[in-house]
Amino acid sequence: MEEIRWGIIGCGDVTEIKSGPAFNQVKNSKLVAVMRRDGAKAADYAKRHQVAKWYDDAIQLIRDPEVNAIYIATPPLQHEAYTIEALTAGKLVYVEKPMTLDAASAQRMTDAAHKLNVKLCVAHYRRAQPMFLKIKELLAGQVIGDIRLVRLKMLQSPNTSLIAKSADNWRINPAISGGGLFHDLAPHQLDLMTYYFGPVKNTSGMAARQQEDAEVDDLVMGNILFENGVVFSGNWCFSVAAQDQADSCIIYGARGQISFPVFGNKFTVTTNQKTEEYVFEPLKHVQQPMIEKVVDYFLGKGQNPCSGEDAWVTMKLMDDFTRK
């Protein structure tokens, strides 16, 4: 295999800028087909993005002999079925985050990839972005000393701009999303924590529905004790006033702290009363660095940037925090 020829299942809003165009920007990668259940919208997407083929049936796209890799960008409810269908057809798979609805489903997807001996990657793409790689480098270099504690705060109003808008608002339908806005945003944050600090030893958490008529938890609290002794404490609330919104993660070490927003482009390092700021250029296509790593892995030129096992850990943490 010399080129990854992609087919997208679910060419909705998230693929317009964040990911879709990047498949043609990466070396040895080409987007050749897209699928959406609404054929007119699939055709429109293909025309606007200069994609040769479009489908309104996922199975037809999976069976297209020109396609050798599938990017699954549907809501989480369909992730498992489409992943296993694609793996069974021998197609390489790159699936959006959250990997699926829960840890049990993630395990079935991972098991299928191993059984069928077909490569599977999960789109926890922040671990490939320059800002978060720089933070990892500083942590490894002991810039703030041994890590003691991580405190994360994600507070958003019900109409937060961090969530991509969709016509049917599926993100707050637990049957489709797995558990509301927490399940949409927390995978980015929790994956970074395991990427930085390694295996998990213990967890605890709680969740509540504080808004009237809520179908999903809008308040989640979670704690992690990592095997290396680092302690994480996170708070997520999606029903605060607009002026109280916050996106903050502070890593405390023996000699200082690193403070950053997970949905931002700069961070600060404070040691010995001195603060240094690192600013990064916003990425036009936020998934492009990850897609580069995925393509290299699929072509046998690199390691898996985020495996099913990696993503299972994130799903398990969310299950633990919400007591699924």
TrEMBL record:
It comes from the Bacteria. Gene3D superfamilies: Dihydrodipicolinate Reductase, domain 2 (3.30.360.10), NAD(P)-binding Rossmann-like Domain (3.40.50.720). Residues 4-124 form the Gfo/Idh/MocA-like oxidoreductase N-terminal domain. Residues 132-258 form the GFO/IDH/MocA-like oxidoreductase domain. InterPro entries: Gfo/Idh/MocA-like_OxRdtase_N, Gfo/Idh/MocA_Oxidoreductase, GFO_IDH_MocA-like_dom, NAD(P)-bd_dom_sf. Pfam families: GFO_IDH_MocA (PF01408), GFO_IDH_MocA_C3 (PF22725). One of its GO terms (molecular function) is nucleotide binding. PANTHER family: D-GLUCOSIDE 3-DEHYDROGENASE (PTHR43249:SF1), UDP-N-ACETYL-2-AMINO-2-DEOXY-D-GLUCURONATE OXIDASE (PTHR43249). This is Predicted dehydrogenase. It comes from Pedobacter suwonensis.
